């Protein structure tokens, strides 16, 4: 976005107390005086000023310094943005003299966890930012600390304290305590390698070491493509559908341990359905009849605590009950119905494939190759398929939350996988930042061959997938989105729920 500067908004009043800091803990010390909230009014002013800066779009980025100090916050901002920086912090001359005092001159400014914020502000907005801070009484608390770079170089130096606020250009750096060289000079890739090394070693002991190695390699890869989304449809667009006097009805099915039913019901309701909360006990007791519904949705969670395997107990409560098995089979056979299984519901519905027309070659789902529950933000490609729920979405690469421990697609016979691919029944797969099928962890969080994670039937009326579309049907649900994409109300997966509505009213 053009040139920008890095500013430090300091509520510690330059005290730089190190007691209880992460730095002290590294050296097995408690320290002496810890940071404190000495100025509640200033803290309220900081909160109000930050809200105004965000509302007016005057911040490119921001980070508090309460966990590691200014140097850690700068490093985290650099690693998140993929760009280096030049920073010059004010040394603390109150500790000049002794050997210990010399260390505190640089340790305090770098690692103090006093209240404060690091801000990245466009050059063109500096005056507007200063006006906001002045209006909230914070003009004496702000200091220029550096500039981002266009490459991956990082440089940190110290300078003598400067009087008054500093929002202008770079001050002349006085020689720092280590001579003429910066206190820190390295590449961002080197910083990432050191930063993630301990986590990598711990992960390799706890998880599948191969997955740990893949994630570590990606973390330090300077050529990493990041995330790349692409759309073949308008997220806010509504597929054409005939007008109806009565809303179609969808059964939001759940079982003991299921927890995704509320979001699912909300997504279908927003698409135009009348959503009904249907518990398995309602079906067992005969109080609810599947014949009354156009759609059936099995939601995510941990049915029966995944006893007997993911979704197995839930599926067997249907298959081993002749009345329920017949009712579900009759529902699946009706040409005017659709079925959706997500996460635990995907695992369950996959085990009903013997009574679902066109699902004979579906896989079952086993433990993730990482050997851990994976809760991540992933990218899916919508593959060409007959799925009525994914109509018009083929070719799109879109974000989606993932949360499962057993999402590995396992085909009992290699011929089943070939049949699924040959029949275009594989409808969704994980992709990397280059848009290629993800074979490596963590872009492929469960290890499924070819990244496959969603499957449909020959007539497209049933769809199962491991990730959670109901957690991304509104744009505000996304933990990250690129500028200019998903800026309306609809998230990337709202189209799927609207497709369901269009099918239900047309088929009914």
Structural summary, described in words:
This protein is an alpha/beta fold and 508 residues long. It is 30% helix and 20% strand. It is built from 14 helices and 18 strands. Helix 6 runs antiparallel to helix 7 and helix 8 packs across helix 14. The protein is elongated, with a radius of gyration of 28 Å. The protein starts with a strand and ends with a helix.
SSE arrangement:
Blueprint (H helix, E strand, L loop, with lengths): L3 E7 L11 H5 L13 H16 L5 E4 L5 H12 L3 E6 L8 H13 L4 E7 L3 H10 L6 E7 L4 E7 L24 E4 H19 L2 H11 L29 E6 L6 H11 L2 E6 H6 L9 E4 L13 H8 L2 H12 L4 E5 L1 H7 L13 E3 L7 E9 L14 E8 L3 E3 L3 H9 L3 E5 L21 E5 L5 E4 L28 H14 L1
Parallel strand pairs: 3-6, 8-9, 8-10, 10-11, 11-18
Antiparallel strand pairs: 1-4, 1-5, 2-4, 3-5, 6-7, 12-15, 13-14, 13-16, 16-17, 17-18
Helix pairs in contact: 2-5, 6-7, 8-14
